[in-house]
Design a protein that fits this description.
This is CCD27 protein. The chain is mostly helical. The chain has 2 domains: 105 residues; 69 residues. 89% of the residues lie in helices and 0% in strands. The chain is built from 3 helices and no strands. Helix 1 runs antiparallel to helix 2. The longest helix is centred in the middle third of the chain and has 100 residues.
């Protein structure tokens, strides 16, 4: 945005300079036209005087004025050509700056779109993370309840001693395996005695 503001200020300066030079060009064109009119008037006057009086000094004065006016016209035309060249250069610079401003705006627009897309993805990920956390807490709570019931069922069996401290998963598995083995041995003993 700072670069665009800088370019726009530079563009305004160039356009202002272009308007000033165009104004100077119009003024020079006007002066040139006036000088040409004066030259034409002097030429007419010269012809008239030469025909009427044939006065040599007057003719020399008019010729000097004519030469002077021609020199002024030549200088004005040279200045006008320089002004036209400068105007062309400034118009090229203005067009280039306008294109650069448009390019910068396009890039900024693309960056805004990318930023909005990333922001949307971040919000979606945050929402999914929250959902996952809630689901994980629910699963953890169910697992703890299920584990508590398994421990309670395992250590409440006949012959089992209730745990004095927190029980590890390995200890629970060993106690369950012991109950299962004892049950299988009891079942085998009943089977051997013929009890269904």
């Amino acid at each position: 945005t700072g670069v665009i503001s800088s370019l726009q200020r530079q563009l305004e300066i160039q356009e202002s300079q272009l308007r000033r030079i165009k104004s100077e060009k119009e003024m020079l064109q006007k002066q040139l036209t006036e000088r040409e009119n004066q030259l034409q008037a002097m030429s007419t006057k010269f012809c008239s005087l030469r025909e009427e009086w044939k006065h040599e000094e007057m003719m020399m004065t008019i010729e000097k004025e004519n030469c002077s006016l021609q020199q002024v016209v030549t200088e004005q035309e040279s200045k006008l050509a320089e002004q036209n060249k400068l105007i062309s250069e400034l118009q090229g610079t203005v067009s280039q700056l306008q294109a650069e401003v448009l390019t910068r705006r396009y890039h900024i627009h693309k960056q805004h779109q990318a930023q909005e897309a990333i922001q949307s993805q971040a919000e979606t990920l945050q929402h999914r993370e929250l959902q996952t956390r809630v689901a994980l807490e629910c699963i953890t709570s169910r697992f703890e309840r299920y584990r508590s019931k398994i421990i309670q069922a395992t250590f409440s069996a006949a012959g089992s001693k209730p745990p004095q401290a927190e029980v590890t998963d390995e200890e629970v598995l060993e106690a369950m395996q012991k109950i299962i083995n004892e049950r299988m041995e009891f079942h085998q003993m009943l089977k051997q005695k013929g009890v269904k």
